[in-house]
Automatic annotation (TrEMBL):
Residues 9-39 form the Flagellar basal body rod protein N-terminal domain. Residues 104-339 form the Flagellar hook-associated protein FlgK helical domain. GO terms for biological process: bacterial-type flagellum assembly. It is found in: Bacterial flagellum; Secreted. This is Flagellar hook-associated protein 1.
Amino acid sequence: MAGGTWLGLETARRGLNTHRYALDITGQNLANASTIGYTRQEAIIRATDPYTVPSMNSSCTPGQFGTGSMVDYIRRVKDEYMDNNVRRSTSDNSYWADQVSVMQRAEACFAEPAAKGISQKIVDFFKSWMDLQNNSGDLGVKSTVVEIGSNLATLLGTVYKQLNSIEKSVLEVDSSGEVQGGMMQDQVNQVNDILTQINDLTNAIKKVYDVGQQPNDLLDRRDLLLEELSHYGPVHVTDGNTNGKPNGELEVTFFGTKVLDSNADLCFNDMKLGLDAGNLVIGSAKSGGEIVNLSTKLADQEFSGSLVGLVNARQELIAEQDKLNELAIALKDEVNTILDSSGDDFEKIFFSGSLADGDFVVNPDLLNDPNKLDGAVADKVSKLRDKDVLGESTFSEYYSYIVTDVGNAAANANSMAANQAAIKQQITSLRDSVSGVSIDEELTKMMQFQYGWQASSRMITVVDQLIDMVINRMGV
């Protein structure tokens, strides 16, 4: 059975709409060619149901008349596996990238080599004792020893305080173990905010799916937030579906802990940093929550992200502070032991306190009266310069080891961050080659849909002329 008189017009009309919709989608792609997180969209065009009226005298055969085309749905051109790879590479890169600035700040505290740095002050300190050995009763030489010792103590204390300040900028904890602030606390607050946004978007996406629509722009925003979340730690995402079709539901794990489940309406909005047995932890107070010990994740290859990177940087800072304090304590003990063994009535203490307590100084009595210094022991003190007092290291060698250790940590973090950034860029480029907008390709499609629209328009004109001929001109 052939189509009716108006079938040609209806078919052409549908062609106009189809190509207009396709042009609109192409325009959307071109408008968002530079939009971060935007996923290329594509009009899925299919033929509409054919025209046929089955009856006793007619049959449904392959000879049915077509009725045109329609845009079935707007598809996001997406590779979910590539998204997982990008999120993983983001976590790996962030683990090192956030350590770079911290360790470079720590490296800058030492300012070595420098003519007035701690390394030179250690040399000058023992040199002044050698001078005192040759002039044991000279008040001027004694004053020099005390002054250089005081300068050395001040420099050690200054570097220690600077390292401690950087450590607290990463994470500040009071005496009771409560977190007071720092970069890690800020990042956890940001994680909570991202999870809340993802949860809200998921609820909106589910509503769009429920009415049979495709929430492409909302999905783009959610994917961008998931990638941002992976900056702070490893993220695993499981999309929900109903009868093989997406329904917008989402399950998200962060550091292996479920933090979002749209089925259970679970969103940890009260994640907090804390201390447990001296270890940094992250968890939730809601329903007890799982406690994830970030400190134990440093050696776990499955865990990465900036939070663990900052834990590593903080532990490195604490270790360098401890080494610096060990150097000061060893210097105090060695010098004071020699002065105490002199058997004279002179002052027995040269250094007092510790860097950890913030009171490492030269004995105030010596500062007030350098003449109290026992010059008879100058020879023994000067020989400490070459004595192995910290393992197999002299004071100068041990300090050089501290400086080298900090420098190596900064250089390693910088090198690894650059390496991981290159890997992330390559993986992101591979994803964008699939999901990103190619302006040349879209311009080609634009011409294709333009000609399709023009052809459908021309079809309407031709059918109109034919109908006009039949209705208005035949028989005239």
